[in-house]
Amino acid sequence: MKREIIITSDGSTTIHIPEWNEQYHSKHGAIQEAYHVYIENGLKSISKKEISILEIGFGTGLNCFITLLESDREIDFVGVEAYPVTKDEIEKLNYVSELKVKDQQEVFDKIHRVSWEEKHQINKNFTLTKRKQFFNEITDENAFDLIYFDAFAPDVQPELWSETIFKKMYTALKKDGVLVTYASKGDVKRVMRAVGFDVKRLLGPIGKWHMLRAAKK
């Protein structure tokens, strides 16, 4: 499918898929959504000094990059992506300039440059493993403290929001682990609860009323 780079409302870029009328991030602001959903309501809810994170939908690497910038704790980050973005697309992303972290350009480049299927030390506190994998192929068990669930919207790819997928997410989390997502549909909440999650609806990022945080008890 055709993909094109667009500017979202906060000035940051994302990738738009015209056929689906769907974006990799919120059109109301890619950076503001990443901070609100995944940092403020995800990363900051975990008190451990060492955190393992699974991202469902590595995409442009924005959530990974911001996580690295915003934490001085030990983080082991695993990003799953079936269709990696291209070198040309990466070069058109403006996250480094919009975040005003030009001294971190090499870090952003390294996130995208390192090979897939291997663990890499990005900086002294942050390791990254990128896995080219479909979500239904995930088999991790009790491995992660936090999941960033950033798949395409339920209306576009409902199969990614199924009970089968969320069972895998529940299994992949450690006890007391947390999953956060921008989505808040009633059907998503019901599926999460059906597999055992304790689900809370929280205030959403700009442009959305709500988001969800789910805990494994």
Assign the CATH topology. Answer: Rossmann fold
- Quaternary structure of the protein: single chain
Distance between the termini: 40 Å
User: Which regions contain 5 or more consecutive residues with pLDDT less than 50?
Assistant: none
Radius of gyration: 16 Å
**Broad structural category:** alpha/beta
Order of helices and strands: EEEHEHEHHHEEEHEHEE
Task: Provide the helix percentage.
Answer: 25-40%
Q: What keyword list fits this structure?
A:
Rossmann fold; 26% helix; globular; alpha/beta; 11 strands; eight-stranded mixed β-sheet
Task: Explain this structure.
- With 217 residues, the protein is of the alpha/beta class.
- It has a single domain, classed as Vaccinia Virus protein VP39 (Rossmann fold, 3-Layer(aba) Sandwich).
- The protein has seven helices and eleven strands.
- The strands form two sheets. It has an eight-stranded mixed beta sheet with strand order 6-7-5-4-8-9-11-10, sandwiched between helices. The chain has a three-stranded antiparallel beta sheet with strand order 1-2-3, with no helix packed on it.
- α1 packs across α2.
- The mean pLDDT is 97.
